[in-house]
Design the sequence.
């Protein structure tokens, strides 16, 4: 994969995100809890890395020709990344997502010029599922590439090649644990595999939202989901191609309430506005820090910006309708 070939153009803005120390979670645990600011990528999320890697890989394999079309099923952020990279490289994008994803992500995709196909949410086993719909559209479209982020391991390779070495360099090799939640699993598996190349001792923890099946898989060997979550972009029910062989040492379950508490604490105490998957990741990092004990360094991901969810997570009426607590700061 020739990521270097993008040096010098706008796509070189992807990655090399800052790593910040989170004061509140660090004080609460006696550890250094550090977070990669993936919301600072040009498309506003961690998924710019996967989008760039998938397109670079397809180009290198001759699967994408100038003027071609990239088709993908996504919770939105990968679509935004693909649309940005696609624009920069001269490809059209067709993005399939469920109509339950945030209004802001839908509007962003339209603004970037992607063709948006909205479908109702269904089980993965249903042929109408957004992932299968995107595969069919790709098959029926002349010169189209199906990005296939769930099973295309160019996704996790982006994290093996970029995110993990960045974390190693930014911590000076002082990293005891890493944790995040999985959507495709590209981040957790790629950063996990990449960090283990530097040191086998780094503990990789999976943080699983309610409604996902991975906690039970890694804890008990059984893919079984319990509860549900309003978090977008995370919550996996199968072992994707990217998760296959992920070096998971420990696992945690985090509720939406715990994640939201961190979202609002990050906003009030650290001055950072992030989405719910980031809040869930920070709650997971606190659990991993407690498991490892004081004095350790734990790294997690701030996957996207809270600005992407102004009409939902930061809207008291929406929170109330979902039965979620409205924080004091939104009542003021
Ligand atoms: N958080 C958000 C907001 C996302 O959009 C995604 C990607 N679906 C993730 C986390 C999870 O990343 P990955 O696909 O690498 O598991």
Sequence:
């Amino acid at each position: 994969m020739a990521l270097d070939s993008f040096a010098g153009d706008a796509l070189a803005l992807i990655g090399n995100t800052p790593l910040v120390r989170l004061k509140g979670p660090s004080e609460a645990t006696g550890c250094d809890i550090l977070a990669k600011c993936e919301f600072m990528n040009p498309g506003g999320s961690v998924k710019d890395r996967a989008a760039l890697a998938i397109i670079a890989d397809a180009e290198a394999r001759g699967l994408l020709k100038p003027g071609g079309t990239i088709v993908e099923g996504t919770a939105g952020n990968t679509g935004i990344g693909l649309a940005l990279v696609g624009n920069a490289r001269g490809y059209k994008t067709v993005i399939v997502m469920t109509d339950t994803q945030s209004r802001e992500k839908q509007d962003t995709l339209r603004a970037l010029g992607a063709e948006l196909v909205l479908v109702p949410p269904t089980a993965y086993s249903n042929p109408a599922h957004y992932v299968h719909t995107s595969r069919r559209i790709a098959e029926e479209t002349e010169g189209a590439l199906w990005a296939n982020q769930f099973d295309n391991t160019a996704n996790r390779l982006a994290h093996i090649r970029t995110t993990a070495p960045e974390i190693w360099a930014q911590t000076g090799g002082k990293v005891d644990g890493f944790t995040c939640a999985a959507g495709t699993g590209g981040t957790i598996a790629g950063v996990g595999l990449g960090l283990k190349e530097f040191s086998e001792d780094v503990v990789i923890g999976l943080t699983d939202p309610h409604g996902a099946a991975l906690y039970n898989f890694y804890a008990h060997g059984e893919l079984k989901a319990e509860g549900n979550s309003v978090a977008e972009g995370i919550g996996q029910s199968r072992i994707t191609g990217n998760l296959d062989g992920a070096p998971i040492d420990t696992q945690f379950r985090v509720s939406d309430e715990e994640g939201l508490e961190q979202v609002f604490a990050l906003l009030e105490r650290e001055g950072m506005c992030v989405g719910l998957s980031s809040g869930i990741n920070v709650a997971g990092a606190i659990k991993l820090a407690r498991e490892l004990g004081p004095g350790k360094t734990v790294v997690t991901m701030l996957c996207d910006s809270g600005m992407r969810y102004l009409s939902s997570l930061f809207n008291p009426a929406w929170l109330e309708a979902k039965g979620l607590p409205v924080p004091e700061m939104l009542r003021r």
About this structure: The domain at 46-146 is CATH 3.40.50.1100 (Rossmann fold). The two ends are 50 Å apart (CA to CA). The chain has twelve helices and ten strands.
